[in-house]
Write a structure and sequence with these properties.
- There is one protein chain.
- The longest helix has 20 residues, at 43-62.
- Helices cover 45% and strands 10% of the residues.
- The strands form two sheets. It has a six-stranded parallel beta sheet, sandwiched between helices. Strands 9-8-7-10-11-12 form a six-stranded parallel beta sheet, with helices on both faces.
- Helix 11 runs parallel beside helix 13.
- It has helices at 14-21, 43-62, 68-78, 97-109, 113-120, 131-139, 176-184, 209-223, 228-232, 234-241, 267-276, 278-282, 296-308, 324-336, 366-378, 390-399, 402-413, 418-428, and strands at residues 6-9, 33-34, 126-128, 146-149, 170-173, 192-194, 255-259, 287-291, 316-319, 340-343, 358-360, 381-383.
- The chain folds into two domains: 6-198, no CATH class; 201-413, Glycogen Phosphorylase B (Rossmann fold), CATH 3.40.50.
- It has 18 helices and twelve strands.
- The protein has 429 residues and is an alpha/beta fold.
Length: 429
Amino acid sequence: MAEKAWVVAVSMGYGHERAAFHLRHLARFHRVMNADDYQGMPAADRLLWRETRRVYEFISRFKKVPLLGDVVFSFMDRTMAIRDFYPKEQEVETAGFHVRAVWALMEKKNWGRHFVKKLAEKPLPVIATYPIPLFMAEYFNYPGELVAVVTDADATRAWAPLVPKKTRIRYAATTERAAGRLAQYGVPERNISLTGFPLPESFSGQDGLLALKEDLRRRLVRLDPSRKYLARYSDVARRYLGRVPEIPGKKEPPAVIFAIGGAGAQEDIASGLLEYLEPLLRSGQIVLRVSAGTHARAADRLRKKAEDMKYERFQVEVLYEEREQEYFKSFDLAVEKSDILWTKPSELSFYAGLGIPLLLTPPIGSQEVRNQEWLLATGSAVAQLDIRYAAEWFKDFLDAGVFAECAMQGFIEMEKQGTRNIERLLRAL
């Protein structure tokens, strides 16, 4: 472990980079390496990655175009769709167009050869949060160990290589379903470990679960102002938290953080919330933080709207960082101070394991549909209703203890030690 590993990500949405950021303490020099943007990268390789990223971002944004956007997105999404899990015993799914295209580019264009050669100068284990860099490493005979960190609750066929049964890639699966899915694709079961998603260790610090429990006890007070949940399930709170949160002398409003995704597709929802939540914000019943990520223009537009509506900063705060690494750090700090995470069912789904209830915007793509199904099945999240009436149903959810129940369910049901489990997997290689 003295030399640690290469931790590799790609700029293909926050999900892959966020997971790598939480593993940076395992990285050589504590730096995450981006396979699509590194010093000395050949121009041809850079172009191929850039075109791949453009397609991803275009499809995510184009979905908002009336009628035509849904048609085009649906067509593209079908090529990445995850088939039904049952029956468990079914014909092994062959590689789709995306995986075959990667192999063709490696074979005909030597895509990734330079990247693998650069890694091989110091052949440490490679931990990647996106599958293509690992396919490249395997294809070009990288001499070190290979670990894929799955970033969704279920795994698409794109996570498995062209011939899965022959792969030497080790998989860190987020859930039992993801692990079972990889086995269905033909990945040898000996190559699959159930680890959970790499969550920010800043939440638990040196005190581990004790810190998370104390945070959740404080959060439950704000999430259950009418004591509806705690009155019914005081035994559950006592069992998992040690004691039932006491009634505070002074009530504090819950803080909601809304996350705009990597492609920026949720800006319209964030903008609408400034209007639709106005009664709750003006009366001090909630606080709203909007995380614009690294989208400078979105942050400017949202701040301008908040100023035009004469919101004070303690009512509405817009968060923005220029660089992804700084954004991930400031976002984790903001979530730690918040009580409800309002997001699409992306990689942020796993934050529910920290005792933070999720309020879900509509999923984008089949992977997020599967994430949402998993979250709702665990009871750790609730789907948003018509945002035009958000002030009404949000208050009803709060008064009924819905968010408090989601917070406890996520804490109870979900793996919280993904980061350390992946570290243990690395040590065992």
